[in-house]
Amino acid sequence: MTTPDTRPDPHLTPRAEYTAYTTAFLSVGTMPMFHVVGPLWALSFGASPFEIGIAMGARSFLPFLFAIHGGALHDRLGVRRVMIFCALSSAALTLLYPFFPVILALILLQVITGFLHTLGWIGAQTQISQLTKGHPKYMGRFTSASTISNFFTPPLAGFMWDLAGPWGAFSLLSVWCVFLWISVMLMPVPDTVTVSKGPPSWRAMLPSIGDYRDALRLALIPAVGFVIAGSFLINSMLSVRFSFLPVYMESIGFEGTVIGFMVGLAFLVGSITALPTARLRRLFPAHWILVCVTLFAATGLGIIPFFDDLEGLVFVTILFGAGVGLG
Questions:
Q1: CA 88 → CA 91, 120, 161, 198, 232, distances in Å?
Q2: 278-293: per-residue pLDDT in tens?
Q3: What kind of architecture, by CATH, is found in domain 13-190?
């Protein structure tokens, strides 16, 4: 029998609550849209599958190096300030994509915008945590907003690609970032958070060795290290799938809207299959669950080339999404 949650309801104002949800919806939505538009853009100017893989993987390069520092930046400079910078910078940089149909420019833009989008998403999660102290009612709604965005935005990006090509698709992404900026501007600063009003110092924006030392010390704990390894495997499979699937589907004649639907479907299935995780953990050891679902997701990824029809691709997407969601 589970113990009921006794944390007091923070009773958020409508402005605080709904801007948290819209910020989550808009912030997380940029990432799956780039999973659709990025490979299609690279294919349009003749990039090879190897180059496309590098370009899509480049989005994770700076987040990998500075994930710890990114979280510390929100603490030092304030969530609102960091997210405003990320949203406006992303809106401007996204419009540059169609101007430079060369692989080196694509990789460079992917490196920068990937970091900005990840930093923005960290900010959205930090904001809701500061407002609610992890209250399950609001965190559940926050997760729902994120899930809906992950399912809704990839088909939207694919549809815009089919309708107006790269200029239309990247313009949509830029406008999306502008809406994110508006949502962030409307976000209130929680009363419990103290933020410096002056201009940030260079020292505050530079990585701290102490932050990395503390994180590495945690990673040496076996349980934490196992979770990190499992997360690495699952995120690696996500990256491979979203680099490979649009290229494969485009090569066998599918349009951008259908490709976007397939990207979004994986997120939707993952969100549904994540629901029984707590019950499974009561029945089986957590490490065996992680091993099994990782193999499950890997199977859904590896058998994609055996299918060239929509029904088969839906099947492998459900298989993959279920494994990732449980993982």
A1: 5, 11, 23, 20, 30
A2: 677 777 777 777 778 8
A3: Up-down Bundle (1.20)
